[in-house]
Amino acid sequence: MLDKTSRDFLAYLESRPEGKISLLQPIDAPDGIQESWQLMTLLEFLEHREYVKIIRARGTNNATGVQITHKGRMRKEYRRQEMLRYFADKWVDFLAMLIALVALMVTILLR
Questions:
Q1: Using CA atoms, how far apart are residues 21 and 13, in angstroms rounded to an integer?
Q2: Which of 74, 76, 53, 56 is nearest to 64 (CA)?
Q3: Model pTM?
Q4: Dihedral of CA 21/27/30/34: which sign?
Q5: Residue 54 phi/psi, 5° resolution?
């Protein structure tokens, strides 16, 4: 699940040419990001979840840019698939809960 700042940043990144931005020049960051450390924390969070790829300078760990990935562009579809997998795994639990609720209602009504 993504927070508002993450969604706003991904939308901003999608609107850029080729879905890329350079971190070597100032960017119009979404609301909620005032400091560079906040931007890097957001980028690391999104990279960990495979929504963006941080472009780093060769031989260093310095970030020079960021690019949206396929998962970042198609995040609604991936979220839908994730929910379908969850329901497929939990359908027995939902059925058991429904049977238990029906049994409780029958017990209360027949008393």
A1: 7
A2: 56
A3: 0.74
A4: positive
A5: -85, 125
